[in-house]
Write a structure and sequence with these properties.
Blueprint lengths: L2 H9 L12 H22 L8 H12 L11 H33 L3 H26 L5 H11 L4 H29 L7 H12 L1 H14 L6
Length: 227
């Protein structure tokens, strides 16, 4: 790791009050593996967590797993994978259950423009692609992955269908991004020097399947289009 990242990792645990919840490095430095589970639970299960950095957190955690066990901030890959999957799956299921009980009332009263837009997008995705594709694809869309879970509960998506597809999507999202970070960190020395652009590329690549599906769907809706 670079001196700057090492210094941040060694100082942040002593300054929890100064943690930047929008920054993956800051969260991991302060809370480690536990932070992965908590952040993903909040982002996917609680509507107030839509601003949290799920994608960059997963990738950065994987990157830190690739470093030497003696380096400050090193994380255990098996524990990170377990924490990520647990937080994301439990969060989505909690969001679904909250949506069944209080989703419509909350969405009708919220003044957050981002939540409103996310809810509209999530409803559009559910209607256009059906339960399976919508729930899986939503994992790769910030804000949508926060809003879709309670919205699915509010709209009466069957519990069995929701659980099946949120587990599949959650594992693809968490395991995929953690292993991507780990693989890059293990194969490229000092890759953390370029952490921000690398994270941007990884997040962009994670959206490729969604973009391809949107393109295919639009073509299919055109006159003479084929599915």
């Amino acid at each position: 790791m670079t001196p700057a990242l090492t210094a941040a990792l060694s100082v942040a645990p002593q300054t929890h009050l100064a943690v930047n919840v929008l920054d993956a490095q800051s969260l991991l430095a302060a809370f480690g593996t536990l932070g992965v589970a908590v952040v993903l639970f909040a982002e996917t299960g609680l509507l107030v967590g839509f601003f949290l950095p799920g994608d960059s957190l997963l990738f950065t955690a994987g990157l830190l797993c690739a470093g030497s066990a003696t380096q400050p901030g090193h994380l255990s890959l098996p524990w990170v994978l377990l924490a990520a999957a647990t937080g994301a799956l439990a969060g989505a299921q909690t969001g679904y259950l909250l949506g069944r009980k209080a989703g419509p009332a909350f969405l009708s009263r919220t003044k957050s423009r981002k939540i409103g837009e996310g809810a509209d997008r999530a409803a559009e995705i559910l209607e256009r692609y059906g339960y399976a594709k919508a729930i899986v694809l939503a994992r790769f869309l910030p804000i949508v992955r926060t809003v879709l879970n309670p919205l699915a509960g509010a709209l009466g998506v069957p519990a069995r269908a929701f659980t099946t597809w949120q587990v599949l999507g959650g594992l693809l999202w968490t395991v995929g991004l953690v292993l991507a970070g780990y693989g890059l960190g293990a194969s490229v020395p000092n890759v953390d020097r370029y952490l921000l652009p690398v994270i941007a590329v990884i997040v962009a690549l994670s959206l490729v399947p969604v973009a391809l599906e949107l393109t295919r769907s639009r073509r299919a809706r055109r006159p003479g289009g084929t599915v």
